[in-house]
Amino acid sequence: MWWGGRGHSFNIAPQKDNPELGLSAPKSIQGSGMPEPRRNQLGSCLTSGCLSGEQILAWAPGIRKGLEPELPGTLICTNLRVTFQPCGWQRSQDTPLSSEYDFALVNIGQIEAVSGLSRVQLLRPGSLLKFIPEEILIHGRDFRLLRVGFEAGGLKPQAFQVTMAIVKAKAQSSQGQQYAGIILSKAGQSSASRNPPIPLLETSEDWETERKKQGARDWRVSTVNERFDLATSLSRYFWVPKRTLDSEVRRTFGHFHQSRGPRLSWHHPAGSDLLRSGGFCTASDPNKEDIRAVESMLQAGHSDVVLVDTMDELPSLADVQLAHSKLRTLCQPDSSAAEDKWLSVLEGTRWLDYIRSCLRKASDITVLVTSRVRSVVLQEHSDRDFNGLLSSLVQLLSAPEARTLLGFQSLVQREWVAAGHPFLTRFGETTASEEVCTSLPTFQFPSSQAPVFLLFLDCVWQLLQQFPAEFEFSEFFLLALHDSVRVPDTLTFLRDTPWERGKQSGQSNSYTKVYTPGYCQLPAGDSINPQLSVWNWSLRYSNEQRLQFHNPGYDPESCPDSWLPRQQSSFTVPGPPSSVWLFSRGALTPLNQLCPWRDSSSMLAISSRWFPRPAISSESMADQEWGLPSHWGACPLPAGLLLPRCLGPQIKLWKRCYLRGRPEIQMGLLAPTISGLQDELAHLQELLRKWTPRINNS
User: Fold this and answer.
1) What is the pTM of this model?
2) Which residues, in sequence order, are bridge partners of residue 114?
């Protein structure tokens, strides 16, 4: 497993008949060597290590396998999670949720029961276990594996009961049940519910502070969506040009898909602006004043405007979902792929190809943003998936402050959470036959499901491997964020829109919701504490674990206070007035106008001369310094800019994440602590001592 830990415990209650789950209590455990269980003390406060409404359904003593050394303890199934409690482990008051031992029911992807060497049963909803299991394997959707062997003798009924309890509890959770919520006692308010270290961007003051931090003097905070009556998928506040009135914003946004009009995503210190917007609603009929307002917002005060076709050369949502499912199947310990074919099967998943595509396109956009003062507009039909991915990567490549721990958390909060990425829909349940269907090339997942955010985190991990001294956060922080999307204890990743989060927290009870097709209705019955955020890491991670979030190889000098002058002469060479370009397929194409309604022509149907991509192995405009119009002049790229390598083996598999179910591979992946490195060194020296005689004799 990832981290070791000691310090929390459940007090196990005697198992009772549970008619709802169809379970019956096992025989007495007296004489089994287990201590007589005490009364269940699950409470309603985090400080006692409990969750509100949590009930223990079944438990059984066992040994957690796949670890060195194996851990004896107790496997516990509740109505919210499955947890393995090692002997002597007690649940901390400050860390009520365990990042290492807890499996949320919604995180469970597959359950297998094993008896002997040949009897294996895959347990689906409604399955009846056909034998007393000797082992149970729980495969997490986050690539973790919980493998527990049960003791023989009089405890066999408990092994059967806890296995069936997990299957039935999982089936109930797939019907929309989440954690009932976390209620904090007064004793826990100071630690678990303290304000997160980053602004959640739920107030206009937060947005104004962030605007000043970026130095976006020509922008202002708009309150036109304060009551969510413009768009429920947008945040209550966002940035628009200073001279644009809110009445113009309202009219202009109506000409974009789901009213997601052009908004500032990031202001480059040298003067460029990175915007994001939804696709044009070509069926709308704007008047001349609306067209002028749309063009003004897209230009954002710049003479040069580049519209970026976001989805060009990037995978579809269905492609991402299929690739991720194939990757999870391949990385399971019992994968059928032969060792000599494993790498070719990995390439066949296309997951690494999609990472290359995202990094290549982000590099090209970064050059567009940094090589001259201009407006660069990311345009995606929904503006809720790859716009956030590319915008985030561009900022990581361009701005050293985004590579700090707090800066990266702020980036995710702004570009993903506040911008309305549909986390709940994208991480929706998959079918029980998913693992079988992924081997069929014609199989299609629902288009609404796709782990785009996890694809982004993998892209960030690739950057961390290529530029290890440029990032303050470590691989383990990315791993914690990766796992957090499967732990439904906060509103951060548990809703699709800012409106849903505001509705749940009581902030928008008096607001009017506009109908937008495709939105999930707010689940009823949830009582999740609105004050908790995923950034409250103390809920699931101990102090020792949180120290590992910091990259020991980080060079603070790579993030100076003033890393780039506010103005550079080479960045301000004026071009022809109102130069409009389309960036697609790695090439810049001149456009006659910004809006598709002029002359009744579609934006992408405008006839123009395409610039072919040169046949150079770097495959990136950023590497070639190619494709910029001549009147833009020679613009040297600034210091501090990261341009990743995207060829072949330069894109690697994130082994510590995807191969967590194979602990033998984890050894040698560079432990995060000095003691861990010493253990790995001792292990390698021992292997060398054992193998040296064999090599010499051969």
Assistant:
1) 0.82
2) 120, 135
Distance, in Å, from the CA atom of 410 to the CA atom of 517, rounded to the nearest integer, reads 29
Residues 239-270: b if buried by 16+ CB within 10 A, e if exposed: bbbeebeeebbbbbbebbbbbbbbbbbbbbbb
Residue 188 placed within a domain? no
Specify the number of domains making up the chain.
3
Query: What pLDDT does residue 533 have?
Result: 84
Question: DSSP 3-state assignment of 423?
Answer: helix
315 and 266 in a common domain: yes
Q: Tell me the residue range of the domain where 670 lies.
A: 666-691
DSSP, collapsed to helix, strand or coil, labels residue 655 as: helix
Calculate the average pLDDT of the chain: 77
The token duo for 268 is: 């480059």
Residue 659 lies in a domain: no
Which of 181, 215, 239 is the endpoint of a domain? 181
Short-list 419, 489, 482, CA closest to 451: 482
Domain CATH number, residue 68: 2.30.29.30
Q: Are 218 and 242 in contact (CB under 8 A)?
A: yes
Long-range CB contacts for residues 659-665, cutoff 8 Å, separation at least 24 = 659/143, 659/331, 660/1, 660/2, 660/143, 660/144, 660/145, 661/66, 661/139, 661/143, 661/144, 661/145, 661/331, 661/332, 661/333, 662/331, 662/333, 663/1, 663/66, 663/67, 663/68
b/e code 506-537 from CB counts within 10 Å (16+ = b): ebbeebebbeeeebeeeeeebebbbbbbbbbb
C-alpha to C-alpha distance for 224 and 207, rounded to whole angstroms: 14
pLDDT confidence tier of residue 558, bands split at 50, 70 and 90 = low
One domain, residues 495 and 356: yes
Q: Cα dihedral angle (456, 460, 463, 468), rounded to 10 degrees?
A: -170
Residues 177 and 209 in one domain: no
pLDDT at 242 over 90: yes
Best CA proximity match to 261, nearest among 274, 247, 251, 273: 251
402/419 Cα distance (integer angstroms): 17
Q: How many CB atoms lie within 10 A of CB 180?
A: 17
Closest CA to 235 of 384, 376, 380: 384
- The pLDDT of residue 682: 76
Q: Please check whether residues 262 and 173 belong to one and the same domain.
A: no
Whether residues 174 and 216 fall in one domain = no
Query: 100-137: per-residue pLDDT in tens?
Result: 888 889 889 899 999 887 789 999 988 889 898 999 99
Average pLDDT estimate for 593-607: 58
Q: Are residues 244 and 173 in the same domain?
A: no
Q: How far apart are CA 207 and CA 305, in angstroms?
A: 25
**d(C-alpha 33, C-alpha 87), whole Å:** 13
The verdict on 160 and 235 lying in the same domain is no
Query: Is residue 137 in a domain?
Result: yes
Q: Tell me 444's DSSP state.
A: -
Catalogue the E-assigned strands of 526-586.
Answer: 579-584
Please check whether residue 409 lies inside any domain of the structure.
yes
